Amino acid sequence: MRITNRMMIDNAITHMADNLAALNDASQKAGSGKAFQNASEDPVTAALTLNLHSSLSVSEAYKSTAQLTNDWMSATDNALQKISDTGITAINDVQQALNDTLGVTERKTLATEIGGILQNVAELGNSQSNGQYIFSGFQSDKPAFTVNPATFAATYQGDPKLMIRSLGPNQSVVMNVTGNAAIKPLLDSLKRVYDHLMNGSINTPLPPPSVDPSTLRTELTTLQSAVDAIGTQSTANGARQRQVLTAMDYLDKANIETQNLISQKENVNMAEAISNLRGQETTYQAVLEVSQRAISTANLFELMR
């Protein structure tokens, strides 16, 4: 086969172009840290990383839901604990009211304190998390309770619906405690105690504001049961919150593993990338020198003709 000057020049240009393309590819990988710029460069790996990114997005969404749920449950636990402590104070007041040595004035003073406790419980029942009322059920945009300042009658404005949140595939948890079930019985009991201490009992023949001890003792038992129910709700909320925390821990670990897999598939080893870039630069410089000599020789032969 006869090698012409034109062929030498064309081959030199081809080699320079190929090596320049390889140098550009090495430069892009070293500069971006990515193993490929377009899916067409590695379709199989690109499809795999796309699935990994999709899984990571779903997992991050579950994690965000879990975090909001945990915040909600923390607010619930804090409110229920304070309500329970306030209820215990009310129990102590009622026990004090059963003291036969107390007169009408003292019992009315206790009634006023019970009224203040009732209002405090209602305020705690209107606790919020991220701007939403946690005891209102699905009606989380409105306060759970209102209290008539004249009569101390409490009204529940929410609904009894439970809010269920997904923590992952086939895993969900009840996020809320409804105020109607957990707090309203305590408010109703406090209202009856207030009325009894302030106005006397309609079940006793004694004129108001005399107090019927048996009625007050019965209400004390009801009040104690309502406070105990608060504790039961708090315990159940705590158990569900532990489930949420476990799910969050799992999601954190799963996300780290997924991110590592994405990094392994998408990112280059920078030490290798830099080494390859330097090698390509050296190769390209060598090709330039060889090509320059070949082209110069070809031009010399053309001149001698």
Compute the number of strand runs: 6
**Termini gap:** 21 Å
Shape, per Cα inertia axes? rod-shaped
Radius of gyration: 39 Å
> Mind summarizing the main beta sheet?
2 strands, antiparallel
How would you describe what is shown here?
The chain is mainly α. The protein is 70% helix and 6% strand. The chain has helices at residues 5-32, 43-97, 104-125, 179-182, 184-199, 213-266, 270-304; strands spanning 128-129, 132-133, 145-147, 154-156, 164-168, 171-174. The protein has a two-stranded antiparallel sheet. The longest helix has 55 residues, at 43-97. It is rod-shaped and about 120 Å long. The two termini are 21 Å apart. The model is unreliable at 201-209 (pLDDT under 50).
Map the helices and strands.
Elements lengths: L4 H28 L10 H55 L6 H22 L2 E2 L2 E2 L11 E3 L6 E3 L7 E5 L2 E4 L4 H4 L1 H16 L13 H54 L3 H35 L1
Antiparallel strand pairs: 1-2, 3-4, 5-6
Compact description:
By secondary structure, the chain is mainly α. It is 70% helix and 6% strand. It contains seven helices and six strands; from the N terminus they run αααββββββαααα.
Question: Which descriptors would you attach to this protein?
Answer:
305 residues, mainly alpha, two-stranded antiparallel ribbon, 7 helices, 6 strands, 6% strand, rod-shaped
